[in-house]
Amino acid sequence: MFTLSGIVETLLWGVANGCIYILLATGLNIIFGVMKLVNFAHGQLLMIGAYVAFVASTALGLNAYLAILVAMGAVAVIGIGLERFTFRKVLGTDKLNEIFVSLGLIYVFENAAILLWGNDSQRIVSPYESLRLSLGEVAIGYDRIFGVLIVIAILIALFLLMKKTKIGLAMRATSQKSDTSMLMGINIEKVYIFTFALGAALAGVAGALYGIIFPFNPYIGALPTIKAFAIIILGGLGSIPGAVVGGLLYGIAENTAVYFLGGIWQDAIAFALLIAVLVLRPTGLFGEKGE
Amino acid sequence: MVLAIKESIANTFGFVKNEVVGFSRSRMFYYVLAALAIAAVVPLFTSSYVLSEVLTPMVIFTIYASSWNLLASSGQGSLGHAAFLGIGGFASALLVIKLGIPPIIGLFVGSVFSAVIGLLIGLTCVRLKAWFLGMVTFGFSVIAVTIISQFDAVTGGIMGFRTPLIVERGLPFYYLTFVFAVISVFAIHLIMRSKLGLAFRAIHGNELEAKMNGVNTAKYRLIAFVLSTFFAGLAGGLYAQSIQYIQISIFEPYYSFLPLMICVIGGLGTLEGPIIGSVIIVAIDRYLPGIDSALQFLKPLFPNVSFVGPPLRMLFLGLFLIVIVVFAPKGLTAFIRRAYAYFRGKLVTVKEQ
Q: Under an 8 A CB cutoff, do A100 and B314 touch?
């Protein structure tokens, strides 16, 4: 029952799913790297992004891929609000407070989504839904290929932003030593807002892509957060290349586990991997410093 | 002897005594006695619904939240405590059913089993910082679901099963949980007052400084983890009995987030915080649905949901949590203390005039 084409298809699907996780993990990682803050409600931003894209594509009649831009912008704005009104208040206090605020946000987002859009599963209908690229016995939907291409484009843009622009320089400086960068004339608060908005925007794109590929409901946020965490730990904290490789490995591992062991293992395999990495190599596969 | 007990109970609130405003120790003793008396007498006058659906959960969640609080007092925030609640519940019930041992012994063995699993998990993650510990514990609660459902033939977790009872439901069971809660809270109090508790607080305060002063931080964090999972397992065993039924849903994130909510709202790192928090959260959980029908007038605003009440309540619970963390980080306990000190201060000045 395990055929070669089945395995190849599993790997391809793994890569495509991995791409969504990469976006989420990269956003989480940027926020963590610069602000030393962990937003456990990051997956809920993904969920909101999926719904925004859904509204944009159904109510406004936008093409599903244009709706991604709407989701990106809307979730970035939400991110700015979150940073300004909640996380900034607890930043620098007890680390547990960040967890509590995130937990409160999870409740707020999930239930706001239920109130606005109901409990039922929704999906974003893409115009290319029925199109499949077939390579011999293996077939993969165009939507997944587009998803991968979009993620690659975003990652290149992100790389240029971090390396070539002033705000990227400011972010890197802040991530190394926030006090010193403040002394060097960097407006830390602005950097924080930008960082959080950037991370949220990535989550918004991830959400829109998720909505194009999978059906979604208000409760989908929790597991992707944890998976993004697993990826960050796998790839090494604060390392964007690490998050990319980690995300790919993770997507492939998850799909392989489903293929060989059955769907019930999909989520458990993630955490088995996570715990194994933490025990064997606490700094992650590519991490330099332990946190 | 009596004096010693009195002193000891008076110290019940000792581990936050730096923050105590206006409470003197001898007075404290009477407050604790009064609280115990109320908790012991009130059930005699309530309906059986209130007894089994409100008061008993309050007492059980006090144990559960106290176990979480103990872990948090060493600076470790678990996001997957439901795993240990569930393991305690499943282990204690299965031992009784499969091996035929008395339920009370099953309860203890189940708690110990939970602590052993806690030891294994703790070994992998006590060196991690707060967020990653949270992640790993949450991950473990997901793995636990998979394992329980994978070995459904042994665990019977997917469909669930009836749990054997130690004593009959109603008053006897309430007093049983009450005794366990008093013992647990008192034991946690003694732990927090001992050298162990000092180490926990030192680690929470500043891990690096604790290390520099010769505290073996990994060891003490592991001890905190094991102790906490023991009490969580105990709470799980009791909870499974209180609802007379155990199913895989006990591992849901709801149960993982519950003790966190309770502790934050009650007052993190205080002994009375989990007690006050459980009373508030269980009361909200049981009585607030009463306003659901009143909220239904908002229905036209939200055409996609049939019942507006539950999500709206949960939304405000989330907002409430954020507001508490941002504006009253020490929880309602600190608020009550401050109010008490304020009014006491007023009384004293009035007398002096």
A: no
CB contact under 8 A, B135 and A115: no
Inter-chain residue contact B318 with A229, CB threshold 8 Å: no
3-state secondary structure of B260: helix
Residue B1 is predicted with a pLDDT of: 44
User: Measured between CB atoms, does B140 come within 8 Å of chain A?
Assistant: yes
Residue A262 lies in a domain: no
Interchain contact, A106 vs B135, CB within 8 Å: no
Question: Which residue from B128, B134, B317 is facing A99, i.e. has the nearest CB?
Answer: B134
Look at the block and give the residue holding tokens 């269980």: B282
Residue pointed to by tokens 């309906």: B47
pLDDT band at A118 (very low <50, low <70, confident <90, very high): confident
Write out pLDDT tens, residues B237-256. 999 888 888 888 888 888 88
Q: Classify burial at B294, counting beta carbons within 10 Å of its beta carbon; exposed 0-12, middle 13-18, buried 19 or more.
A: exposed
pLDDT in tens, B257-290: 889 888 888 888 788 888 888 988 888 888 877 7
Domain hosting A35: range is 19-221
B238 in A contact zone (CB under 8 Å): no
Contacts of residue A103 in chain B, CB cutoff 8 Å?
257, 260-261, 318, 321
Chain B residue nearest residue A279, CA to CA: B124
Answer yes or no: is the ipTM higher than 0.90.
Answer: no
Q: Which of A167, A134, A137 is nearest to A3 (CA)?
A: A137
Check residue A38 and give its pLDDT. 81
For A213, the token pair is 């590929």
Here the tokens at position A9 are: 């298809």
Residue B144: Cβ-neighbour burial (10 angstroms; 0-12, 13-18, 19+): buried
> Is A176 among the domain residues?
yes
Each residue's pLDDT tens digit, B218-236? 888 899 999 999 999 999 9
DSSP 8-state secondary structure symbol assigned to residue B14: G
Per-domain residue ranges of chain B: 1-45, 50-248, 313-353
- Sign of the Cα pseudo-torsion (A268, A272, A278, A283, in order): negative
> For chain A, what is the domain count?
1
Q: What is the pLDDT along chain B (353 residues), one digit of tens a residue?
A: 445 555 555 454 444 444 444 455 667 778 888 888 888 888 888 887 888 888 888 999 999 999 999 988 888 888 889 999 999 998 888 888 888 888 888 889 999 999 999 998 888 777 777 667 887 888 888 888 888 887 877 777 777 788 777 777 778 888 889 999 999 999 998 988 888 888 888 888 888 888 888 888 888 889 999 999 999 999 999 998 888 888 888 888 888 888 988 888 888 878 888 888 898 888 888 887 777 777 777 777 777 777 777 788 888 888 888 888 888 777 777 777 777 788 877 776 665 55
Contact between B261 and A119 using a beta-carbon 8 Å cutoff: no
B242: CB partners within 8 A, 6+ apart: B52, B56, B57, B60, B169, B173, B177
Ramachandran class of A153: left when φ > 0, alpha when ψ lies in -120 to 50, beta otherwise: alpha
| In a domain? residue A145 | yes
- For A135, phi then psi, to 5°, come to -120, 95
Under a CB-based contact definition with an 8 Å cutoff, are residues A27 and A199 in contact? Answer: yes
Which of A24, A51, A3 has the alpha carbon at shortest distance from A270? A24
Nearest to B237 by CA among B82, B85, B70, B55: B85
